[in-house]
Every structure is written in structure tokens, then in C-alpha cells.
Fold:
Amino acid sequence: MPDLAAPIAEWYRANARDLPWRHPDFGAWGVLVSEFMLQQTPVARVIPHLESWLREWPTPTALAGASPADAVRRWANLGYPRRALWLHRAAGEIRDRHAGIVPRDIDDLLALTGIGDYTARAVAVFAYGERHPVVDTNTRRVLARAVEGRSQPGPPAKRDLSAMAAILPHSVAESAVVNAGAMELGAVVCVSRAPRCGACPIADACAWRTAGYPDTGDERRRQARYEGSDRQARGAVLRQLRDAPGHTVPIADVARPWPDPLQRDRAIDSLIADGLAETFEGMLRLPV
Structure:
């Protein structure tokens, strides 16, 4: 396999976007919060919410002392609001199990609520400088094209970590740069549609380019449309609760103009099941 690490690292040092979580003094808690927020949410939307969140709760202990309702309210329109509850629970676990310090050990991180393989390794690598492969959607696309000659990656799999580990340099510090560089390359150059191959530092070594850019299909699951979906109905209910005095609304008034009353009721039931809302005395409110 050609050396992909060196050109990726060189390109990243010259072209990396200036993002808050890349600053050396950002801290492990900031990195952890940013990783929760960045799941399925664009960078531009995350940054102002991240800054607001860290001003409000600069440590895990500070967030653990807040109510779940405060976390859901502050999450605002980032989407997938269960992440706010998971982050709140993880903060309490960090306070209770790790004296308020975000752990650096992969197994300790994986034991926290809402943290999977990617987030655990991202915190260990980008906050603590450990040497592990870190693989997100962008990295997987770079690996699929450059190493496997495919136009799009397949569904996420454990082998993705092995593929990334195979290109990491032995240097611990340099491996963190290559991890970040592969993610950045996939985010801004090796994009899903219309990749900018002329700006790619590993174009000459890319198996997909060498093969003539074959269309090998796309096995990824398509996200359901948002407009008119249950997700949109859930968002409407949560928005009303966030904006209401005391974050409380009579159930009869919740999303009253919603065109499908059965979908509205499904949305309310699912929010209650997920712990994002609760009922009392004919009212619906954010969790307390």
C-alpha cells in the first residue's frame, strides 16, 4: 500500500479549517460536547450552540447539576434531541465515576451513556493524544476510494477501524494529525458528490481514480424525508415545550394545528418513551 499518511498530514497542516475543538487548549469536555453535537449535524450549525453550551456548563459537573429540561432547551434546533439527554447523563456519570474529569481510557469512555466507537476514540485521540484509529463518515469515504477503489463506502463496520489503523504512522503525535486529516479531506475535498480530485493530496495513489472512477453503487441506508415525517412532528412538539412558560403545555394544546392528529399523538408518545417529555395532571412538559 502506498504511504497515504505523510501527504494527508502535510495537506492537513496547510489546509485545516480553524474549528474551536481543534485548538490545543479546548479541553476534553469541549471535545466530548462537540462530538455529541456533530453527529448528523453540520459544523456551521454546531459552533454557536457549542459556544453557548460551554459558557453555560464549562464542566461535566456543571451540566450534571442542571436539569434534563435545561439540557433539552439549550440543545435548541440541533436535531436528534436524545443526544442532549445522553450528554446530560454522561456528565453525571463522569462526575460520579471519574471525579468530574472526562476519562481517557477507551473502555471507560464506551461505558458512558451515548458514546460509541467513534466518539470514544475521537476523545481519546483529539483530547488526550492517544494513538487509535478514528473513523467517521468522511474518513470511511476516503478509505473506500483511496484504498478499496469504491465510489462510496459500505455500511459502517468494525473493519473500518482496521483499515484506518493500517495507514496510521507509528508516531503517536503524527497519528492524531493523520486521523484529523483524513476526516478533513473527506469533509472538504473527497466529498460524496463532485469530489475535488485536483486538490487531493493522495490523488496519485487513489485506487478509485486509477480505476477510472467506476460507479460501484451505494449501499448506505437513505434517511427518510423530514417534511411531513414523525421526526418533524416531534420537533414541533419539542419546540413548543421549549418556548412555553415553565416548558409546560396543556396536552390538549400541544401542536394543536398539526394536520395529522394521529401523528401528533405518536410524536407525544415517542417523546415520553424517550424521556424527552413527561405528563402530569393533563399537562406535557420537558423532563425535570
Observations:
- The chain has a mean pLDDT of 93.
- The CA atoms of residues 75 and 185 lie 28 Å apart.
- Residues 230-285 form one domain.
- The two ends are 54 Å apart (CA to CA).
